[in-house]
Amino acid sequence: MAITRRVLLRSAAVFGTATGTGFPHLWFKNADLAMAANGEIKVGVLFSLTGTTAIIEESLNKATLLAIEEINATGGINGMKIVPVVEDPASDPATFSEKARKLVVGDKCVSVFGSYTSASRKAVLPIFERQNNLYWYPTLYEGRECSKNVIYTGAVPNQQQDEFVPWLIKRFGPKFYLIGSNYIYPKEENNYCRKLLERHGGEVVAEEYVPLGHSEFASVINKFKSTQPNVIFSTVVGDSVVALHRQYRAAGLDPAKMPMASLTTSENEVAAMGGEAAAGHFTSAPYFMVHKSPENEKFVAAYKKRWGDDKVTHFVSEPSYFQVYLFRQAVQKLAQRDITPPNIRDAVKGAEMIAPQGKVRIAPENLHTSLWPKIAQAKSNGQFEVLVDAAQWVPPVPYAAYPGQVCTERGLTQI
Amino acid sequence: MDQFIQQIITGLSIGSILLLVALGLSIIYGSMGIINLAHGEFVMLGAYAAWMFQQRFGLGLIESLAPIFLVVAVFGFVIERGVLSFLNNRPLDTILATWGIGVILQQAVRLTAGGELRYVQMPESLSGSAEIFGTSVSLYRVFLLVAALALFGLTWLLIQRTATGMKLRAIIQDRAMASAFGVNARRVHGLTFAYGAGLAGLAGALVSPLKSVSPEMGTGYVVDAFMVVVLGGVQSLVGTVFSAFILGELSSVIAFLQNDTVAKTLVLVAIVVLIRFRPEGLFTTRLRT
User: Fold this and answer.
1) Average of pLDDT values for A369-385?
2) Which residues constitute the domain of residue A50?
3) How much is the average pLDDT of A81-107?
4) A49 and A164 share a domain?
5) Are A381 and A275 in contact (CB under 8 A)?
6) Residue B46 counted as domain residue
7) Which residues contact A156 (CB under 8 A, 6 or more apart)?
8) Is B215 within 8 Å of B44 (Cβ atoms)?
9) A149 and A217 fall within a common domain
10) What is the ipTM of this complex?
């Protein structure tokens, strides 16, 4: 149909009346029902299945799909099925942004579950803010973000470090060697670590960053030997973790005297480096596969049954799993015509559930999650042994390293 | 003083890994003039072969070295015969073809072996460390140094002292004239490429206990290998050895004084500056042209 002046005028008139009366759905049938129509709720699943971070993101994709399948098998949400639209952003931030736009604008998903790296989260953020849609981000990250359009279910620095750093000082000594991959996450974590060290009487003997994907740690290990720190505080990521651990072991260093304390080494990385290289080192995270709880046993059994007996669950796949249940809880509270991203966000504020790691809660003010930090030591069988379990959940403080800045419902505020 | 010795030894170790990885490329690029962008994938194949022998047949790394060499060499031979021999004297097409082969190999490995990171067990006897000049050094790194030098020696003997090596040298000098004297250039090329590929596979297998094994691992190695070969002088095997150890020492020292990010940058800058003023690299072989 050619757009003539008459057509244009007519539609303008209809549109004007419709919005003017405040009841557009009376005029445009199903206009607001499109997001949850025909007994289906469409959600996007946006994890890289190819490219450099596919190794880990594939497991997040699997945990997300498992939760969706479980919910659908038990009747869905108020009788409606969750329909996942899976896209592969190929570990590339530009593709992330393109696929996110497709999911939000094209497929009209009410929420998208996705991302592992901070770079990919930052790439999709503008789309979710502009479209006022909702992004569920399961990864531990550096904090310092305050968006009304992201639900953060992974840990922020205060949740991984507040207990960990003093514990390490007490057990091994005050001298820390900070080593990380060269990008934003390790720098922010180390920035916070320095503050904790100051507070608890520790000191930094060196702070160093290696290029992403770096695999030759001979010089770094020499520096470990010459500076003799009590603790090697590691935020190295990806395959570099594997190279660092294997070369540490080959160099004959002893984890009992100079352990690596990591925020990034999960069961997944341990499987990739072999238990003997990981044994004796420490990780702090809210979840470990060996955690004893009925919810976790159920999760691990279901995961293995669905995806294979040799598969492991870890501290990013667990939030990928439970955040879908939080999504269900929020949508359940809404009438079908109210299922829109802003309403889901409002409904998830303050939501609680028993996750595999323990009872979690979405903080209404910053949409991050109260979690249960744990300190664990890797063993040669590829699993961890949990040594310290938080006595109570730890609320998220996304701006912990920046005194005076607080994330509130109105956005970032200065006090 | 202690630290100084330690850094020198570390540099030797980094250099030996560079040499291992570059040796195969040096043969292929230097003697055949083929810019083989799939070199990194040959390294990756070697690492995966080591993983597979260990996983499937329970073979230790040392025992599986010979079969790994053979497997990757045969693979290289097939690729030379099937693709590259049709692209003689078409360097641009060769670059594209080897690049494509690399991509195909990466995806093929991802589909068959899976995308997860893998690892290869270090031989138990080499997992300790030794005291050298008062500093402790990983035995495995010493082993790598010895292996790299041994492979270089072997390669040098093959080229300088065997009939096939002599034919290869003749072809490098003048292919048409060598053919006129009855040298089967096609056969020699196939064998050379296979040998180079086999060396790359060995390199992959040998470094795998220290590093991670993944379908994308080749990308980093191919850059390293080209750096070494270009700096050393394209047709000089001895140059490859020197440049590998120079680069190893250089990055070791800079990484110790500064950090690895700075080391990587400065080493690349140094190479760029050097080839600006000496495009033929540090060592050159005189050719009849």
Assistant:
1) 96
2) 40-155+290-372
3) 95
4) no
5) yes
6) yes
7) A140, A141, A142, A143, A368, A396, A397, A398, A400
8) yes
9) no
10) 0.86
Q: Tell whether A148 and A166 lie within a shared domain.
A: no
Closest to B255 (Cα-Cα) out of B245, B246, B265:
B265
CB proximity list for A266: less than 8 A, separation 6 or greater: A283, A285, A314, A315, A316
Which tens digits make up the pLDDT trace of A119-143?
999 999 999 999 999 999 999 999 9
Q: Does the pLDDT value for residue A20 go beyond 70?
A: no
Q: Copy the structure tokens of residue B158.
A: 């093959």
Same domain, A170 and A281: yes
Distance from CA of A294 to the nearest CA of B (A): 29
For the segment A367-390, the average pLDDT, to the nearest whole number, is 96
Inside any domain, residue A74: yes
Q: Is residue A280 part of a domain?
A: yes
Residues A303 and A271 in one domain: no
CB A260 within 8 A of CB A245: yes
Residue at which a domain ends, from A227, A255, A285: A285
- Residues of A in CB contact (< 8 Å) with B are 50, 52, 54-55, 58, 182, 208-211, 213-216, 218-220, 222-223, 225-226, 239, 242-243, 246-247, 249-252, 269, 271-274, 277
B188: its two tokens: 């020699």
Helix H or strand E encompassing A218: helix A218-227
Give the tens place of pLDDT for each residue, A54-92.
878 999 999 999 999 999 999 999 999 999 999 999 889
- Residue B252's alpha-carbon distances to A99, B4, B12, B15, B245, in angstroms, are 42, 11, 9, 9, 10
Same domain, A65 and A105: yes
Query: Rounded distance, CA B204 to CA B200, Å?
Result: 6
Cβ contact, residue pair B256, A223, below 8 Å? yes
Q: Give chain A positions within 8 Å (CB) of B203.
A: none
Total domains in chain B come to: 1
Each residue of B53-75: pLDDT tens digit? 998 898 889 999 999 999 999 99
Question: What global pTM score does this model have?
Answer: 0.87
Do A243 and A255 belong together in one domain? yes
pLDDT tens across B133-187, in order?
Answer: 777 888 999 999 999 999 999 999 999 999 989 998 888 888 888 889 999 988 9
Q: Is residue A339 part of a domain?
A: yes
Q: In which band, very low, low, confident or very high, does the pLDDT at A325 lie, cut at 50, 70 and 90? A: very high
Residue of A nearest to B110 (CA): A50
| DSSP H or E run through A178 | strand A175-181
Number of neighbouring beta carbons within 10 Å of residue B161:
9
Asked if residue A206 belongs to a domain, the reply is: yes
Q: Does residue B257 belong to any structural domain of this protein?
A: no
**B64 is a domain residue:** yes
Which chain A residues are closer than 8 Å to B138 by Cβ? 247, 250-252
B264 within domain boundaries:
no
Q: Which residues of B touch A218 (CB under 8 A)?
A: 10, 13-14, 141, 252
Domain count, chain A: 2
Q: Hey, are the CB atoms on A219 and B252 less than 8 Å from each other? A: yes
Q: Is the pLDDT of residue A8 over 70?
A: no
A120 and A164 share a domain? no
Q: CA-CA distance, A277 to B25, in Å (whole number)?
A: 31
pLDDT at B69: 96
Provide the CATH number for the domain around residue A73.
3.40.50.2300
- Among the partner-chain residues A182, A216, A222, the one whose CB lies closest to the CB of B7 is A222
Domain boundary among A285, A319, A342: A285
Residue B72 domain boundaries: 1-115+129-228
| pLDDT reported for residue B278 | 87
> What share of chain A has pLDDT > 90, as a percent?
79
Report how far apart, in Å, the C-alpha atoms of A377 and of each of A18, A371, B34 are.
62, 19, 50
pLDDT tens digits along B97-130: 999 999 999 999 988 987 778 888 888 888 888 8
